[in-house]
Amino acid sequence: MNPFRYGCVVDGEFFCKRPALEKELARLIASGQNVVVQGERRMGKTSLVCQTVRNLQKFKLLYVDLLGIRSLDDFCRRTASAIVSLDKRESFLLSLVEMLKKIRPTLTFDPVTANPTLSVDVSNTAVSDSIEAIFETIHAVAQKRRVCVVFDEFQDLLHLDDANSVLALLRSKIQFQPNIPYVFLGSVRNAMVELFSSSRSPFYKSAALFDIGSIDEADFIPFLKKRFKAGGRIIDNQILKNAIELSGKVSGDVQELCDALWTVTSDQGNVEEGDVERALELVFARESKSYTPILSLLTKQQLIVLRCVANLGGENPFSAEFVKATKVGNASSVRKSLLRLVSLDILYQNNSVYKFSNPFFKEWLKRQ
Question: Which of 28, 120, 257, 313 is the most exposed place for a label (fewest CB within 10 A)?
């Protein structure tokens, strides 16, 4: 059995414990503090938050995924579905129907699994009434059991046509629920900083900032070695350090490369240094169909700048050395190309450093 999981929320043996972060996050949640958790993509934010809440025995997790949300109806439907998942008892479900009557709930049951589904209709309901119904229900549920509400990919609310008014309404309801901890998840480069740090935002300074970076190697390497052992492989620390570096220290990408390493090696064998390159080739084979279309979007100048970031790093892209290597003329031209690469989400900017959104695309470029 493949011992690695990536690209999804994990728990149990597939979750790499991060004791210091879990302890601090648990302290904030237990005290009723609202928290904004930010970090780069695939750093394990969602798994960390969900695992931390589940370990708080007095709390129930109310998890709402807002990825790709485009309407208020969608927000209400997703949140109502999350509330339903808290308790499958008939008495609880019927009470929800009554509490949500402003937005015309319909309770149905899957004929195969018998799992309940609650749909709502806010098409003819005022925005304020729809939001009020949802948060009154959360408040009522929290009177009988402690809940921690987790809004994942919270920045996607900015895509709503009436985003500012919806955000203002959400903030006005949340601030009057001091005993319910709300956790907001999102990527740093997806406007979370703007949402919670800009004085223009309704959520300005409304939650404690909690940054998640790379998993400490002191925690990650023993975890990865244990997973390899569970899959019938032995691997040494240096090879794992190399794999972590090649994966940009992004935990999801590290596990993707480890999955490939496990695949290309023999059962009950040792993972050798040369296996890392074979594993990368497997990753390239799996992903390369998405690489060529990316290149077709770029001008010759943008591609040159991108290759220079891959080979020289993105720490000093406006230095004389970097500009000379690009042969595009001047720092202004480099800046224009970088802006385009960021807008396409090929690169992202973390402070003043430009990084590849996909570290394996970077490695593929270096080998062309």
Answer: 313
